[in-house]
Amino acid sequence: MQLFILSMLTQATIATLSPYLQIIFRNKGYSHSLSGTLIALCQLSAIIMPLIISSLSDKRGKTKPMIILCGVLSILLSMPFLLSESFPVVVVSAFLLNGFFWCLNPLADGFINRKLSGDSSKYGVIRAMGTLSYVTALVLFGITGFPHENDNSSILTCMMIFLPLLVLGSLFLKEDKREKAVGEKGRLFSFSWFPKRFYLFMGIVALTRIGQSVVEKLLPSYMTENLGLGDSFVLFVALGAVFEFFCMIIFGKLNRKGILSSTTILTISAVGLVARLLLYLVPGLPAFILAQTLHGLTFGALHLCATSYTAANVDKNHYDLGMTLYWSLATNLPEMIGALCGGFIIDSFGYPMLFFSYAFFPLLAVILSIVFKKTLDGVKK
Q1: 316 has a pLDDT exceeding 80
Q2: Degrees (nearest 5) of the Cα angle 201, 291, 253?
Q3: How far is 7 from 129, CA to CA, in rounded Å?
């Protein structure tokens, strides 16, 4: 039960910031280019900080204290970030907040996977319940109009409800201290802890995340400004998360039974992302809605296969760090690059060029995942 609660509280908390980051900067009067640059800065912090925190977690053999620490620091840093009108204060607080806030996902995933001994089917169900809480939060936000998409203080109030709940819930987690692997001598990190195929797999995932940066970092303004969805834009984010919920469960079972390997799921997800980005080019709300339903493949299925692949190829003592490499280097780093370049593309050429050009990256991921399938699956030539 504690794993379900941890997953649900974590994902509900993610819902209070993730869909609003671009809008928060826009509410401060920043341009698309500046917003994209600041989002990239936030992503940089979300790369560096989780690597440090997860390495410390692995070295100490405890994840629970790190989750609590990151939750508390996120509470303190969110206030100057959302309320300050000083640009230097916004930059510094945004950098630090996003660093600690985005430690929560890999730490929670590492904790859950360790408890489940890497069982992808059970993880899929637990993570799906987290997604359900994410969907529920977004639907409530959309129906009630709270938080208001054009009011940063309203967004802050929402964060002040969920972050303390996550910290409080984490206090009751039960965790056994992990034994250190022989010969590690207290090192924070070593490339030898992970096989070469793990790095190759995450490199291909990273290519898809450049394309996914359109969805995760640059789509909210498109929905509110171009489609005129207002506060209800979160309902369309929730729509994608609904399909994510089902894909987590379905692909988790298929992976657990050996019907679909993690590499095959990665390929399917990349194909779905190509289709999703090209659908955004079709005018009208029906095509946009159809594109949103593909979120189940472009995030849900991919996250499941990345988590499963990590559990199958990484020593359990390094699950925190393995998941952080996935989140930091295979997700946040490429999304940082995507957001940084994407803001300038929007200002210079518009959203259609953004959607079309970024479809190239998941297409390349499809090709590489097929070419290197045997290596990724660990099959010797």
Answers
A1: no
A2: 50
A3: 7
> DSSP letter string over 137-192?
HHHHHHHHT-S-TT-HHHHHHHHHHHHHHHHHHHTT---PPPPPPTT-TT-S--GG
Question: Within 147-301, where are the H helices?
Answer: 152-170, 196-213, 219-221, 233-256, 262-279, 285-293, 295
pLDDT of residue 178: 63
For residues 364 and 235, give the distance between their C-alpha atoms in angstroms, rounded to a whole number: 31
Closest CA to 272 of 349, 219, 215: 215
Q: φ and ψ at 85, to 5 degrees?
A: -100, 0
pLDDT at position 182 is 47
- Residue 280 CA to residue 10 CA, distance in Å, equals 29
Number of residues in the chain? 381
- What's the pLDDT score for residue 220? 92
Helices (H) and strands (E) in the chain, counts: 20, 0
Distance CA 101, CA 88 (A): 20
Please state, in angstroms and rounded to a whole number, the distance separating the CA atoms of residues 175 and 202.
28
Instruction: Please report which confidence band the pLDDT of residue 315 belongs to, taking 50, 70 and 90 as the band edges.
Output: confident
Please say if the pLDDT value at position 211 is more than 90.
Answer: yes
Mean pLDDT of 72-79: 97
- The model's pTM is 0.82
Contacts of 83 (CB under 8 A, 6+ apart): 152, 153, 156
